[in-house]
Specification:
The complex is a heterodimer.
Chain A: H1 2-20, E1 26-34, H2 41-51, E2 61-67, E3 70-73, E4 79-81, E5 97-101, E6 105-112
Parallel strand pairs in A: 1-2
Antiparallel strand pairs in A: 1-6, 3-4, 3-5
Helix pairs in contact in A: 1-2
Chain B: E1 2-8, H1 11-27, E2 30-36, H2 42-53, E3 59-65, H3 70-75, E4 82-86, H4 95-102, E5 112-116, H5 123-126, E6 133-139, H6 146-149, H7 151-156, E7 159-163, H8 175-185, E8 191-193, H9 202-211
Parallel strand pairs in B: 2-5, 2-6, 3-4, 3-5, 6-7, 7-8
The chains are: A alpha+beta, B alpha/beta.
């Protein structure tokens, strides 16, 4: 369900940029979502479609990249990918971690003409 | 033509959340964002907590409710400032609605604001409200698999409250499985095993929460 609010915020960013750059049409929007935010791409696509209806971005394709969860160990500095919800350093076992990737709700770029 | 943007989609929410957090810090108010499924016991937890804290601290409540003010009405007996935010079907609160709600409080005369978010384990986790910390509440009849299914919430919560422990004998809830999954996701998070019905474990929760104030 959070897909709706996020798609609405995305559509605002995209339409604002399109107006600012005087685009007649947005063709593609490139975004990345971290695995932890649990966005369902199909629902997001649907929500985005509704949000951009009758706008300059109504035909824009969405390119969604899903970013795996990566953490960095504060104890030993090891960077590692989190699998099976195991948030412990793969080298020293510490649970003192900082997040590097996995929470992205990010617009990278958009294409238009 | 490709236009680079490189921006958080929720920038608008995040900027307002940062503003709210600065305001609350300057006013020395602790704001707790309570997140759980519908029916896990957020409002009952608030009732028990207010019974204990109302004479000790100056408390305000923000009730996030999809369509009614039923939860808020349960708290009227405490005679504290309460603001209801109806999300009109929306599945979470956001920082803009919180910021507006804060206008109704006298922040110079408050110690704590409890925010009862809309019952939902996914959406509220992603929208920063400017809270001091998040609290995850989960109840035993929901099953012991919640941490594994909703890792972001359990990763970000400052504490986890497992409610309705008195019902464990009547469910297939396995406490060991729950603790093992939770520890995999967030090994350091304090877990309070409570029953808001019979009062089990509430003292430890009150003590922990008191230490977060002042």
């Amino acid at each position: 369900m959070h897909e709706i609010g996020i798609a609405e915020d995305l559509s605002k960013i995209v339409i604002d940029v399109a107006v600012e750059r005087r685009l007649s049409k947005v063709t593609k929007v490139n975004i990345s979502f971290g695995e932890l935010v649990q966005i369902v791409p199909e629902i997001f696509e649907f929500a985005f479609r509704e949000a951009v209806r009758d706008s300059v971005a109504q035909e824009a394709l969405l390119d969604i990249e899903i970013v795996p969860v990566r953490m960095k160990c504060i104890e030993c500095g090891t960077g590692f990918r989190v699998e099976d919800n195991n948030f412990k350093c793969t080298k020293c076992g510490s649970a003192d971690l900082e997040i590097i990737n996995g929470k992205e709700l990010f617009i990278k770029s958009m294409e238009g003409e | 033509m490709e236009i680079k943007i490189m921006k958080n989609i929720l920038d608008r929410n995040q900027n307002k959340a940062d503003e709210v957090r600065n305001l609350l810090t300057s006013k020395k108010v602790v704001m707790v964002n309570i997140i759980s499924s519908p029916g896990a016991g957020k409002t009952t937890l608030l009732e028990r907590t207010l019974e204990e804290f109302n004479s000790k601290y100056r408390i305000g409540v923000i009730e996030g409710d999809i369509a009614t003010d039923r939860d808020a009405r349960r708290l009227h007996k405490f005679n504290i400032p309460i603001v209801v935010i109806n999300t009109e079907g929306g599945c979470h609160l956001d920082s803009h609605s919180i910021s507006k709600a804060l206008d109704s409080f006298d922040l110079d005369n408050l110690d704590i604001i409890f925010v009862e978010n809309v019952g939902n384990l996914i959406c509220p986790s992603e929208f920063d409200l400017g809270e001091t910390f998040k609290l995850a509440v989960v109840s035993t009849p929901e099953g012991d698999d919640k941490p594994g299914k909703y890792p972001l919430l359990f990763r970000e919560a400052m504490a986890v409250l497992l409610n309705k422990t008195d019902l464990i004998p009547y469910t297939n809830f396995n406490l060991e499985n729950f603790k093992r999954d939770l520890s995999g996701i967030n090994a350091k998070v304090p877990l309070f095993e409570i029953s808001c019905t019979n009062g089990d474990g509430l003292k430890e929760w009150f003590k922990w929460m008191s230490a977060k104030i002042s």
